[in-house]
Amino acid sequence: MKRLGSVIAASVLGLAGLTACGGNDSGYGSGSGSAPAASAAPAATKLTVAEVGDYGKIVVDGKGRTVYVFDKDTSGTSNCSGDCLAKWPAVAAGAGTPQLDGIDASLVSTVNRSDGTKQLAIKGMPLYLFASDSQPGEAKGQAVGGVWWVVGADGQKITTKPGASGNGYGY
Question: What stretch of H or E contains 109?
């Protein structure tokens, strides 16, 4: 009798476990063997071009945020870390080949950061975002400190100073 009770209990627990794992709301798909989204590798980073302010067509990320280069970097090396990196987050390379729209692929590469991560670069110069650019199409980081610049679709930094319609400095 004890044995029959153990078999029934094991069967009930087994069926309960299978039922709990089979639902479509579990985050694992519908039994297709797909992995949870959280364990997927980061997607490839997207760079495209957009008309922004008086700067013409410039490079932006996949969310429309303006990207910048830093005069204190050297080709292939980022010199922005610590507090600098908090204000100017690196454009992470992501996984795979970057998705490019309107940018010649031969201009885009990656640099190895001192923390072991990879950062996208254009013409060898590491790319950054400006933390104070809160909306797509903003370029508040242009000319900050005389060393931060938006980048044209041709990979050249644009040194046009911000217009009189706003200080453009993010302050």
Answer: strand 108-112
